[in-house]
Prior knowledge:
It comes from Thalassolituus maritimus. The chain contains ten helices and no strands.
Amino acid sequence: MTDLNSIPALTEEELERLGTLLEEEAERNDSFDFFAVHGFITGLLTGPAGPAGIDAQVLWDCAFEAQTGFSKAERQDVDTLMQQLAKEIQAWLDSGQDFPVPADLTLVDDENEPPIESWAMGFMSAVLLNEESWYADREEVVAQHLFPIMYASGLFMDEPEMADIDEDPDLSDRMCGNIPAAVVELYLMMHGAA
């Protein structure tokens, strides 16, 4: 059992700095916001490649436009803070505790794009990067655990079963509420700790 106090967490100031820089860039270039970056890193670490999947260039290529609006110093800050965030997420995954998704687990009654939708879209972007490895020889069980994240991402809203969930706010909340446990199950499955 991991001592949760030993998890290398970003300070409030660091989180605020990263969130602000990502938000400003998302408004400039329609790139990933903080929640999508967090979800993407979580997906990369949860997936078959694990920590080896965190390639700084892949992260940049998926999260941002080729030409960002960051100054050189801001880019360095974002890079450093994202690497620290990856260490924090990895420590949580290794802890065996419920995974702390940094957003309310609901899509209901939220204006604009709810943070959980952005987080789930980031996570699914990591899955889609390496889909064959994710599903490999266990397609059905992986799909089952991914389902709540797929639902929350909004990427599959045209599927009839997703529309059915959308029509029932309680079911929608229950589905989103399954996400932290789903992340843990997927991580254990991919990394043989179950």
